[in-house]
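QA checklist item 7 of 12: single-chain prediction sanity check.
[x] sequence parsed
[x] length recorded as 534
[x] structure emitted
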Amino acid sequence: MSSTVSSRILSSARNSIIVLQGKGCLYSRYIPNRNKIKWKCGFAKGPLSPFVLSWSIDNVFTLKKAFRHTSTEEDDFSLQLTPSQINDILRAGEFSHKIHEFDGKNTNSVLKFESNQLAANTPNEDRRSAATCLQTKGMMFGVFDGHAGYACAQSVSQRLFYYIAVSLMSQQTLEEIEFAMERMKPVLPILQWYKYPNDIYQEVASLYLDHLRVFWQELLNPDIELGFSVEEALIYAFKRLDSDISLEAQAPLENEMMKNTALQVAFSGATACVAHIDSVHLHIANAGDCRAVLGVQEEDGMWTALSLTQDHNAFNEAEIRRLKGEHPKSEAETVIINNRLLGILMPSRAFGDVRFKWSKELQHNILENGCDVEALNIYQYAPPNYYTPPYLIAEPEVTYHKLRCQDKFLVIASDGLWDMLNNEDVIKLVAEHVAQANVQKPRMTFQKPASLGYMQSLLRHRKARGVSSYDQNIATHLIRHAIGDNEYGEIDQEKLAAMLTLPEDLARMYRDDITVTVVYLNSDTIDSYYKENE
């Protein structure tokens, strides 16, 4: 990238904005803060409810304030970031966790995971979660990509794992939980959170718990046969949560905070990609255009990328066939327009987005019933060619993969990463990072006294051995390359600085929110499984 990168980006961005003159004001077609709310809300830090349904290692996670321009005026726009400032911005959202060993052994098929995210929207519309099921087996990792605001992604990231865990429980466990709830006694913890998905609205926590309870009560119905497979549980949980999101927005709630939150969740949307790992059994449930890719090291040492998801959008021929098959032939040319659902929405599967699911009459009745749509930033418009809803579903496509010793890591990320890097590039970057981390550190034995020349020699040797690295967290490493790579796959510091200092009203034009979670797999545990089951 040349030295004029900042001016080129700024000039290009300005030329891309259509500005309309009206009533003495300038209006841009890009509305960066459409999801900001005007009413105040309270937050509760901690578990889902006063009842102990979860145990969190990281209930409170504070991000460092990242440097960001809010003006596009030339005099205000500068790209003078030091390497330290760049690192502070990139590493602000880092999180990592290593699975604990017992008696010197890790019997889990997961060694550790590392995660990070970088916002383009203000606020960030992506969310991420990681937890262990305490009443059933397995760990879960999720990435949730919100659109039209963060509300839906926030809600799904907090609730979906509970729905999955409850779907996998035995009847006895569900009965014990319900028995405790009836008697206002402590409830068996359902999840152990490793990365809790941000704070939650205190006022709606009780609503979420009530609906989760209704869900497990229905599972206790004698007419419902329990014993779901993992695939069935994942599908059932996705669909049930989306149904609850829709019903909550229609319910006559007296609490204004609950009502406003329910409406924002339902009218915004979120795609979701969730991994459930139990021993060597890996299930991926995907609805939308997040993606999960497995890094595989073959016997000859070569690395390959094994995709475990398909993007649900207009570039997926199977999705186009599904959509056309669910609507009359008269709509064959209008269901997908300009590679978007009804010409508007990119993903063809998502939570929320009731604008593509409810009838026009229902939408009108809900929004006209004392709802301050302007304060909630809910835009009243009817999608064109809207005849036979629903056009959008939240049912996930589930992929099963039996882990092998050559399966080394799993990358789950929102489309902000995959827009910049392809599957093979991502796996290559992680593999190189792993190899670099495995390089044996040279012994730092110092001469006494240590001369300056001797210290310089040690530092050169350390650099040559590749011990030092930009980032210890692999998710940060991927984000750095996603926004900073030049045409040769090398980090261009000037481009990186430009991408990190774009003003809020321009950043989304050049990149999306990026969220990445990398799960490192335990080859020893996987190998032991096959030896024990020969």
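[x] summary fact logged: Residues 451 and 457 are 10 Å apart (CA to CA).
[ ] second reviewer sign-off
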